[in-house]
Amino acid sequence: MIRLGPLGFLKNHKEASRRTELKIPSETRFIRKVSNAVLSKIVDYVLDEGKIFDIKLCIEEAVRNAIVHGNNCDRRRLVKIASWVEDDNLHIEIEDEGKGFDQSKLVDPTSEAHIFKNSGRGVYLIKKLMDKVEYTAGGRRITMVKNLK
C-alpha cells in the first residue's frame, strides 16, 4: 500500500479552471505545500516574478493566519482551501474552524503607534497585494482574487 499523506489526493492541475479543494491539519509545515498547489493552477499564465511572489505571500499569510490565529494550532482542526481560475482571475478561499474575528477591529500597522511591532501586517499586506479581498463566515473565511492578465 502506498501512503500519500494529507495532500496526496491532489489531482493533476492542468485543468486550471476546475475548483480544487484541500483540507489540511493546523500545522504550519503544510503552508508551502498549499501555496505550491494553488500556484500550480496558474503555470500556463505568463506572470512576472513580482506577481507570483505577491500571490504566494498572500496565500501563505492567509493559511498561517487560519492555522495560528483561527485554529490556535490545534491539529484536530482543519483549514480548508479552495482555488480556481475563472475569467483570468485566480480565486482563493481559505477557511478555519476557529471563532472568527472582526477585521474592523484590526489596528493600522502603518500608524506611528504600531509601525515597530513585529506582527499584525498580514491582513494589511493581503489587502494591498490582492485585487479583491472579502471576509465572510464571521471572519473565518477569506476570499482573495488576483487578476492574472
Brief write-up:
By secondary structure, the chain is α+β, with helices and mostly antiparallel strands. It has helices at 31-39, 49-70, 122-129, and strands at residues 20-25, 78-86, 89-95, 132-136, 141-147.
The H/E string reads EHHEEHEE
Largest beta-sheet characterization: 5 strands, antiparallel
SS-based structural class?
Answer: alpha+beta
| CATH architecture heading | 2-Layer Sandwich
CATH superfamily: Histidine kinase-like ATPase, C-terminal domain
User: What count of domains describes the coordinates?
Assistant: 1
Highest CATH level, the class: Alpha Beta
Cα distance spanning the termini? 43 Å
Q: How many individual β-strands?
A: 5
CATH topology group:
Heat Shock Protein 90
Overall 3D form: globular
From the structure above, extract its key features.
5-stranded antiparallel sheet; 149 residues; single chain; globular; disordered N terminus; Heat Shock Protein 90; alpha+beta
Please describe what this structure looks like.
With 149 residues, the chain is α+β, with helices and mostly antiparallel strands. The chain has a single domain, classed as Histidine kinase-like ATPase, C-terminal domain (Heat Shock Protein 90), CATH 3.30.565. Helix content is 26%, strand content 23%. The protein has a five-stranded antiparallel beta sheet with strand order 1-2-3-5-4, with helices on one face. A hairpin with a 4-residue loop joins strand 4 and strand 5. The protein is globular and about 40 Å long.
